[in-house]
Amino acid sequence: MSIIVQKYGGTSVADTMHIQNVARRIIATKQAGHQVVVVVSAISGTTDDLVKMAYELNPCPAEREMDMLLATGEQISIALLSMAIAGQGHDAISFTGAQVGIETDRSHTKARIVNVKAARLEEALTQGKIAIEAGFQGVTDSSDITTLGRGGSDTTATAIAAKLGAELCEIYTDVAGVYAADPRVVAGVRQLKRVSYDEMLEMAATGAKVLQLRAVEYARNHGVRIAVKSSFDDSEGTLIGEVEETMEKAIVSAVTHDADESKITIFGVPDHPGIAATVFRELADEHINVDMIIQNVSEDGITDISFTVPGEDLVRGRAVVDGLVGTLEARGSACDERIAKVSLVGAGMKSHPGIAAKMFEILAEEKINIDMISTSSIKISCVISEDEVERAVRALYNGFGLGQEFQAKE
Amino acid sequence: MSIIVQKYGGTSVADTMHIQNVARRIIATKQAGHQVVVVVSAISGTTDDLVKMAYELNPCPAEREMDMLLATGEQISIALLSMAIAGQGHDAISFTGAQVGIETDRSHTKARIVNVKAARLEEALTQGKIAIEAGFQGVTDSSDITTLGRGGSDTTATAIAAKLGAELCEIYTDVAGVYAADPRVVAGVRQLKRVSYDEMLEMAATGAKVLQLRAVEYARNHGVRIAVKSSFDDSEGTLIGEVEETMEKAIVSAVTHDADESKITIFGVPDHPGIAATVFRELADEHINVDMIIQNVSEDGITDISFTVPGEDLVRGRAVVDGLVGTLEARGSACDERIAKVSLVGAGMKSHPGIAAKMFEILAEEKINIDMISTSSIKISCVISEDEVERAVRALYNGFGLGQEFQAKE
């Protein structure tokens, strides 16, 4: 019998009515002849009051204790969902991350899964039960409770699907799938039917919020097919899988954007070997996520180095850089929070070198200045002014004909 | 260094202000030179909404899932309390029942502790940390989460104190200690300074709510000294220990009462051997707690059997009895919810046979009719009408001079 893993986010289990709906959906999947494992997030909003209390008690609470606190959210969801399914006449059993053996490293609040045991899930399925597993949480080798960080339940679901060799991992959320651009920016935006792992990775890395980057990485590394769907209707959603499965041969699949980036620049650095290594080693040691890096061609042995970081890392990144200005004998540093990144992602771009040029032309026609450029084989990103990003997204969406299922070859 | 175990109930950690107060009290104990292990209940009221949701989803939720749900309450308390202590500058670390190894049987919602491991508590104490342990919860040999039932946190604290060989187990609650009668019934009632295990057991069994019967049993069996104190002031509280420690040589220590009992009677039972065995085996198999049993002297080979059960067991108890009336060839059955039990408890009663007679006289003077009588070596209980129980308590409290520390010998 094939196994389906379903993951439901916090808004899908927001109250008892929603929980009953989710229970019905799960039971329907079982009745269609599948074994079902369900991964659930905390009920949206439940932990907000707890976090508020935590910071009232201690402005800087230990991360281990924060995990202890937050893990209760999913434990509540699994118990309630299991009761709802039983109330509708089907056998269900709930498990915490520790009970199933979602083993992680010890990086509290952002732990990484190192092993999945899942024997209890298999046992429950063998007994004909629906297995309900707490998302977002794991356990260390010393039995301490960890959480996986933002979007962690997606990763839990993917990891379990990989371990059980599930036919499909369905990620239910409050949107109907993956879109060719942010629906809040482009009216009537087209939903994508199929996306390759690599495209989804680039989309997640460049601002698409629908799936967590780590979940997609995990899925790609373990060959887990993911379907992103809405828990509020019965639409087909978006399938994420191997390239050969992504039947749409679009050159450009989507335009993504991310307004939560900031740029840090070090001016007037004497350009000799090892400068970049010094800067980015120091930033890495501080766990600062550097995204794009630009080093200008040297003039008179003096260069500028710019890089972008997520907004939350700006303050710490700036501190690292300011500490280095003296060591590097640089002229100074600056930062700019008013930037945004707009990107084109598409597996077909590999063999179509004209895409970048066309992207720059479209932005030029809109009189949007490009500050930094970064490319991969299936992605082009431009850093532009934050004020212009939505206009850029719409121009690129229309300019590349992303509203049509099949684009004309360039 | 001596170990002190402190248990705080839900009202003691009702909000962040209370949690900070509790944290201060714990730190003061540590600074007085003790190693401190703290057992905490769920914040009062936190689980009420969850239980409401549970019953909305399923009028008859599985007990295993109920335990999964309810155990989150203590997990929240331990994390917050640990953060509060850290915020006040001291090292603390929290543990769930599973992490510490509070091993129980599989009787979900009313599990019994079968073993306590506590290695992680000892490790934390060795590291100079304050250890914070979730009360009320345990874990089965199959890693399922259990709860210990009403007052379970007292039992957790006592069991941990026993395991660690603690000098004292302090039970903090919203009353200042153990009283010679219910303070809501007798104005200005005297607080007891010392009570023996046996007295406390009888008091708990006959209606005193301050400590859970099982916690007292556990304490007696393992020689754990318990102090019952208020977390809202610094009064000395009541010490519960061995008889030799109970310095007050009172004949009667306390008058207790319990209005939550019901009486079931089987009329006209042919009186032959095995009748009582049949009835009470059947009740035991249904897990109905029978308290007092009276079988009248047989007249013409026909007898009546009466017994009392807790209010919550009445419906099931009545069903068992009704099912037996035919088998037993009895005349019928009846039940009475309007009864109450009033009891005198005192270690000194053993050697003073006049106590029972005096008790009956006092009740007779008050024109209170006695329905059933049951005695042990240190207790006399009378079942009377529920309407008269508070009057009975006050009459006995005054009649036996329980307001005075040392009573005149009879």
CATH architecture of the largest domain in chain A: 3-Layer(aba) Sandwich
Tally of extended strands of chain A? Answer: 18
Instruction: Order the strands across the largest sheet of chain A as they lie in space.
Output: 3-6-2-1-9-11-12-10
Classified by CATH, the class of the largest domain in chain A is Alpha Beta
- What oligomeric state is this? homodimer
Helix segment tally of chain A? 12
Tell me the greatest interface: A-B, 39 and 39 residues
Q: How many domain units of chain A?
A: 2
- Give the helix level of chain A as a range of percent: 25-40%
Shape of chain A: globular
Arithmetic mean of pLDDT of chain A: 90
- Note poorly predicted spans of chain A: none
Q: So, the CATH homologous superfamily of the largest domain in chain A?
A: Acetylglutamate kinase-like
Which structural category fits the helices and strands of chain A?
Answer: alpha/beta
Please write the string of helix (H) and strand (E) elements of chain A: EHEHHEHEEHEEEHEEHHEEEHEEHEHEEH
N-C termini distance of chain A: 46 Å
Q: And the CATH topology of the largest domain in chain A?
A: Carbamate kinase
Largest sheet of chain A: 8 strands, mixed
Compute the gyration radius of chain A: what is it? 23 Å
**Beta-strand content estimate of chain A:** 25-35%
Question: What does this protein structure show overall?
Answer:
- 2 copies of one chain form a homodimer.
- In chain A, the strands form 4 sheets. An 8-stranded mixed sheet of chain A has the order 3-6-2-1-9-11-12-10, with helices on both faces.
- Chain A is globular and about 75 Å long.
- Chain A has helices spanning 16-31, 48-57, 63-87, 97-100, 119-126, 152-164, 197-205, 213-222, 275-285, 314-328, 354-365, 389-399, and strands at 3-8, 35-40, 92-95, 102-104, 113-116, 130-134, 137-139, 145-147, 168-173, 194-196, 226-230, 238-241, 254-270, 293-295, 302-310, 332-345, 372-376, 379-385.
- Chain A has 410 residues and is α/β, with parallel strands linked by helices.
- Helices cover 35% and strands 26% of the residues of chain A.
- In chain A, α6 packs parallel to α8 (213-222).
- The longest helix of chain A has 25 residues, at 63-87.
- The model of chain A has no long low-confidence stretch (mean pLDDT 90).
